Amino acid sequence: MALTHSQQVSMLLLKSLRAADDLKALACVVSLLELEARPPLIERLTGFPLKTIRALHGREVVKHQQGRYPRALGNIIDLPIQHLEVSIFLTAFRLEHLAEATAAGTDMKTQPISAASFITAYREYKRVLRSGELFPPETMLWLADEFVQGRLTLERCRVDDTRYIRSAEMTKLRWTLGRGDCPLCRALATKSSTRRTLKSFEIERARANFEREARRVSAKQKDAPGTSTRSDTDVG
Amino acid sequence: MEIDFGPQIRELNLLMWQTARDMARADVALARRNFGLTLLQATRLAQMTNLQVQALADDSKPQWDVAQARALDLIMSSVLANSSDDRLDIYRLSVASSAIPYPSREDLG
Q1: Chain B residue closest to A161 (CA)?
Q2: pTM of this prediction?
Q3: Can you give the pLDDT of all 236 residues of chain A as single tens digits?
Q4: Closest residue of A to B102, CA-based?
Q5: How far apart are CA B48 and CA B43, in angstroms?
Q6: Chain A CB contacts of B81 below 8 Å
Q7: Contact A81 B73 (CB under 8 A)
Q8: Beta bridge pairs of residue A155
């Protein structure tokens, strides 16, 4: 049976929409392969058939990750510098995810995590990485899931304004129970910035540590050759 | 004698608005998130010509914000002291974390 002209136009339009959507999804698949994500994650975020993704993954990804990926909050945040890095990922992810949820007229919890928002946030995380230890995309998607479900929150430190990941409830963080305190406050409480610490302390002590650190770097500035003796450091 | 930094500031304003306009032309949502613009502002900016952007940037005061995080004081002192302290990375990440916009749903609506 021959189609009418308007039916033919509709069919063509539907076909072109499908092709455009597939193209977008394929671009996301390529980006996720570049980030060395595993096939199940790519399938979840793009909806592409797992068989196709596995074939692409086998061909494109040089370093095949196997085994379990880190997904214990205590392990992820115990080093302050890594806590800061993953916090930047989640803050960037929240920005993208909230924009998508607002555009779709849904809330953050019901809005599915999109490949685009995840890729943007993960690229930002890779860009700011300074610790040298990159968590795999699977760990970061787990963090995003926990955040969307309300089990993780993003707090702003009252001492130094740092935005950081914190557990919504008391949880086991390696050898201690807690929610995860500000990474900068934790780093300033120890002499070595590479020390792993999850120890909690009062806000007054955190403030005292911050002011002591400000005095320390200010003194270094005065001692440095070729710098003005005027101190402009003013910690509020 | 007071030095006039007006021309340099105008130039930076212009560069910022040109970047924001180009971004708004490519992706309105991205420009809104990066520059804190409303939908109407981003849409209007995308339509502006070079002359109109120049008129917008014609201000001797900066039209951008510096991320006002407390750790910025620590970074400045460390940089002035030529410190090779590895804590500098932590200060920078602290500032970066607080500089990412944290809008509410109403801000984006």
Answers
A1: B69
A2: 0.81
A3: 677 776 766 666 556 556 677 788 889 999 999 999 999 999 999 988 899 899 999 888 777 777 788 888 888 998 899 999 999 999 999 999 998 998 899 999 999 999 999 999 999 999 999 998 999 999 999 999 999 999 999 999 999 889 999 999 888 877 778 888 899 998 888 776 666 776 667 788 888 888 888 888 887 777 766 554 444 433 33
A4: A95
A5: 9
A6: 217, 220-221, 223-224, 227
A7: no
A8: A164
